[in-house]
Write a structure and sequence with these properties.
By secondary structure, this protein is α/β, with parallel strands linked by helices. It contains seven helices and 13 strands.
Length: 236
């Protein structure tokens, strides 16, 4: 069970540094690779990142910006090749503006994904972000009936399952998911999730059976904090 950490960044180095430090302190499990996709399109900036994070592999599509969707497409191309070479089994996806509020056991999350092939991902809940979430008290609290708590497996793990959306907020997914590719154009995150619900998962799960997950029981609270208040990337 090999896990790669994929950090997506676009030049917000102060936030990136906080994110990576927090991840190093709080992510536990068989982490075999750390990767940063830098979408600044600036070769000099990539050299700065290489010197600052010598343990991290820098991947970038070109010397021009790829945008939100283009960055994920290229990173997933790299990860698909590594999955085929049996170097990476799972990917922890992390944008550059999140810090952790509590330790995360990635091995446990991977065990749940392995035992639950209908799950496309296990994401970590963040604090309420938009007005509707704040009014309800949280992202799950906004639509409580959409989330089914699963608990009582042999190892005592708990998580929430739903069919509302796929999220690129901090989450763990199988490296095999990268073989599906990422859609081009606007609103790619939403369209990717809808595509999974319609077409299914590449390891043979049909669309009607697909679920997305949040790690932890309903009352487990927020696992990460979103610290970026302005987006630098484009093409969400």
């Amino acid at each position: 069970m090999n896990i790669a950490v994929l950090v997506m960044t676009d030049g917000r180095d102060d936030l990136l540094d906080r994110t990576i430090q927090s991840a190093q302190w709080n992510l536990g499990g068989p982490l075999v690779r750390w990767m940063i996709h830098d979408d600044t399109g600036d070769g000099d900036h990539r050299e700065v990142l290489r010197r600052r994070y010598p343990h991290v592999e820098l991947i970038s599509a070109s010397n021009r910006r790829a945008g939100f969707g283009g960055s994920i497409r290229w990173a997933w191309t790299v990860l698909s090749l590594q999955a085929e070479a049996a170097e990476v089994d799972f990917v922890f996806h992390l944008e550059d503006d999140f810090v952790f509020r509590q330790p995360v056991d990635l091995r446990a999350m991977a065990e749940v994904l392995t035992a639950s092939p209908h799950l496309a991902q296990l994401a970590l809940r963040r604090q309420p972000w938009n007005d509707a979430e704040r009014a309800a008290g949280g992202i799950v609290e906004q639509h409580p009936g959409s989330y089914v708590e699963i608990s009582g497996d042999d190892d005592g793990h708990a998580w929430l399952e739903h069919r509302r959306f796929f999220t690129t907020n901090p989450c763990l997914y199988r490296a095999a998911l990268c073989s599906t590719g990422w859609p081009t154009g606007a609103e790619s995150e939403g369209r990717f999730g809808l595509g999974l619900l319609e077409r299914g998962l590449p390891w043979g799960v049909p669309g009607p059976a697909v679920r997305f997950g949040f790690w932890g029981a309903r009352d487990s609270g927020e696992w990460v904090e979103h610290i970026g208040h302005q987006r630098a990337g484009t093409g969400y």
